[in-house]
Amino acid sequence: MQPREIRPQVYWVGAIDWDRRLFDALIPLPDGTSYNSYLIKGSEKTALIDTVDPTMQDVLINHLNQLGVDNIDYVVANHAEQDHSGAIPQVLEKYPQAKVIATPKCKGMLIDLLMIPEGKFITVNDKETISLGDRTLEFIYAPWVHWPETMLTYLREDKILFPCDFFGSHLATTDLYVTDEGQAYEAAKRYYAEIMMPFRTNIQKNLEKIKDYVIDIIAPSHGPMYDRPEFILKAYHSWAFDEPKNIVVLPYISMHGSTRKMVEYLVGALTQRGVTVKKFDLTVTDIGKLAMALVDTATVVIGTPTVLDECPETQTEVCFYYRFLRLGRQDCGTTRRDDSKS
Ligand code: FEO
Q1: Do 303 and 179 share a structural domain?
Q2: Residue of 51, 84, 181, 287 with fewest CB within 10 Å of its CB?
Q3: What are 220-264's pLDDT values in tens digits?
Q4: What is the pLDDT of residue 13?
Q5: Residue 45 Cα, ligand 1 centroid: separation in angstroms?
Q6: Which residue's C-alpha comes closest to atom 3 of ligand 1?
Q7: Into how many domains does the chain fold?
Q8: Alpha-carbon 42 to chain mean position
């Protein structure tokens, strides 16, 4: 694979992970993923925006070699999670003069996680800029998308937003930009459901924060870029702000068919009343599909038998996921409207 030019002197230099099937030992990746890193060669300084997962650091270094990059001045760390920061130590080893640009919180995390020496950092404030000569990087604090230290980087002259995980999708593809909006919508919604939905209030604030920026390209650090940014901005706005729909999500387990019969009765009764039902047998369900269903639903009904007076483990996990993804501190059975009060 070669580096890809996005704009003059702006390149994609990331890695595509076609075969990864699990993220954070938790999230299924049916379509693989990518770790997008971007190189900006300004007239005076060169910056690298995020790196790649440490398992693919050689791919990044190879891309930099192919471009003949003999100097990097800044490595921008929008996010400390290792799928984007994990190759920073190798980049610093190859380009020892480079400084890492990060929020103060991200600096602390990178020191703890990767043992990067403190003297390697330049910390930036919200909306602070750094000049590359003919190009300007603006750093926009965007906490909790999806860790507390996250920020976005905006390349002013080219109107490119580098938001790291925000707007991303786990999708391995050679397409630099979204070509199939249906597929991209599905992958981005799945990503939002699994990664961003627990921080919905923060997502709303961060969407508000960037609404006045003129953006020609959104270049996330997972999945293809958006050269029609309104597509993903509109989708995020809908997922984060819309009222829930009259949909019932019904995850269940049945040992000998009794719970299934009750579930099927309920599905029929609700359907007759015009309610959309999404039913998930948890012994075969893709947890990502269940997470996606939770984005829009107003009601969740969990069907389960008991074992020694307890829910089976899978159901307990679903209660955990539900509380984690949708309600945070609320108990199962609480409606989404309570989410806004939490
Ligand atoms: Fe793609 Fe939060 O890491």
Answers
A1: no
A2: 181
A3: 999 999 999 999 999 999 999 999 999 999 999 999 999 999 999
A4: 98
A5: 27
A6: 81
A7: 2
A8: 28
User: CATH number of the domain that 174 lies in?
Assistant: 3.60.15.10
- In the chain, where does DSSP find H-type helix? 57-66, 82-85, 88-94, 104-114, 181-191, 200-209, 229-241, 258-272, 287-296, 313-322, 336-339
Mean pLDDT on 9-33: 93
> Whose CA is closest to atom 1 on ligand 1?
165
Domain boundary among 221, 241, 261: 241
- The first and second tokens of residue 76, run together, are 């921008």
Ligand 1 atom with the smallest distance to the CA of 146 is 2
**Residue 42 above 90 pLDDT?**
yes
* Residue matched to tokens 């099937």: 21
Alpha carbon of 165 to ligand 1 centroid (Å): 5
Protein residue whose Cα sits closest to atom 2 of ligand 1: 81
Q: Which residue, 220, 241, 262, sits at the end of a domain?
A: 241
208 plus 303 within the same structural domain: no
- Tell me the CA–centroid distance for residue 36 and ligand 1, in Å: 11
263 and 128 within one domain: no
What's the CA-to-centroid distance between 24 and ligand 1, angstroms?
A: 9
Domain that holds residue 253: 245-341
Average pLDDT over residues 195-209: 95
